[in-house]
Amino acid sequence: MLVLGLETSCDETGVALYDSERGLLADALFSQIDLHRIYGGVVPELASRDHVKRMLPLLRQVLDESGCRAGDIDGIAYTAGPGLVGALLVGASCAQALALAWGIPALGVHHMEGHLLAPMLEERPPQFPFVALLVSGGHTQLVQVDGIGRYQLLGESLDDAAGEAFDKTAKLLGLGYPGGPEIARLAQDGRPGRFVFPRPMTDRPGLAFSFSGLKTFALNTWQHCQAGGDDGEQSRRDIALAFQQAVVETLIIKCRRALKQTGLKRLVIAGGVSANQALRSALEQMLGELDGQVFYARPRFCTDNGAMIAYAGCQRLLAGQQDGPAIQVHARWPMESLPAL
Ligand SMILES: Nc1ncnc2c1ncn2[C@@H]1O[C@H](COP(=O)(O)OP(=O)(O)OP(=O)(O)O)[C@@H](O)[C@H]1O
Ligand SMILES: [Mg+2]
């Protein structure tokens, strides 16, 4: 089955073609980062308008790259939520219009299920069951995954998501958007031990997260540096390193707990923050000690992309799921409410 995947939940337009037999055939992405950079974050209306502009040229691009014709496509998967409603509606409308014109089924896919299954596109895909750590711009969740659509939420952030904490901390340090890669870059030259940030909510049992205090801690530390006239590049690097170490260690502690609680030894990390090298290395080490395995997608498929939506949609379309003709999207959408395959 050849499936077209459309992703428009936030500030990336992603279009991909995935074939159940041949794998990923083509994948194109347009990132709106330059459009939103001057505002320091995503402006929803600008995002929606830009998705409208990019969608059809990207579709032509994946058809050209794959050598497929529109008539070869058997189904269309699009991100139906969670995300920005205006942006989601662009992908949903395109998908439904094309499905009607081509006489094929369309299916709305859950964006976080897309992230969660992105490591399945790699050469060494994880087997079910596993624990998934979803760490993105909008989510920080630990989920027990027993199969596609068989998700049990183990814990999540009570406030800021991990990626959001990276972005906000970068902004207060005067760094660019998105902040995660900027913090990671600066942290490489940070001096360990100059600052020590708290590891939020690790001193009590449970799998909930809270990252909003870390950004306040970073702000206070930075203001203290500024007041002492020590506001040069090295202080930024030292703060970036201390912040990143705190996020990584907090995630490691909670992942270890989740693995112990579930008795599982496979961990999948997904979402934009899973591209973070320090996090990957720390998890590799931890899973090595536990005689387990960690799985993640190539960096390009950690952040938003069409390939993960095409893959997730293909599994569900193969199982016979499809939408009615109504164009429906969900700003919020609990992953546990998805049907199991
Ligand atoms: N190397 C990195 N280290 C840390 N954070 C990173 C890195 N690369 C990207 N990020 C962060 O990942 C986030 C973007 O990831 P993603 O595209 O998955 O999130 P989103 O789509 O905005 O949110 P959601 O998927 O929850 O709706 C941003 O917060 C960004 O700062
Ligand atoms: Mg995302």
TrEMBL record:
Keywords: Acyltransferase, Cytoplasm, Iron, Metal-binding, Transferase, tRNA processing. Residues 24-311 form the Gcp-like domain. Fe cation binds at residues 111, 115, 304. One of its GO terms (cellular component) is cytoplasm. Pfam families: TsaD. Substrate binds at residues 134-138, 167, 180, 276. Its cofactor is Fe(2+). SUPFAM superfamilies: Actin-like ATPase domain. GO terms for biological process: tRNA threonylcarbamoyladenosine modification. It is found in: Cytoplasm. One of its GO terms (molecular function) is iron ion binding. Binds 1 Fe(2+) ion per subunit. Its EC number is 2.3.1.234. It catalyses: L-threonylcarbamoyladenylate + adenosine(37) in tRNA = N(6)-L-threonylcarbamoyladenosine(37) in tRNA + AMP + H(+). Its main location: cytoplasm. Gene3D superfamilies: 3.30.420.40. Required for the formation of a threonylcarbamoyl group on adenosine at position 37 (t(6)A37) in tRNAs that read codons beginning with adenine. Is involved in the transfer of the threonylcarbamoyl moiety of threonylcarbamoyl-AMP (TC-AMP) to the N6 group of A37, together with TsaE and TsaB. TsaD likely plays a direct catalytic role in this reaction. NCBIfam families: gcp_kae1 (TIGR00329), T6A_TsaD_YgjD (TIGR03723). Belongs to the KAE1 / TsaD family. HAMAP family: TsaD. This is tRNA N6-adenosine threonylcarbamoyltransferase. It comes from Azotobacter chroococcum.
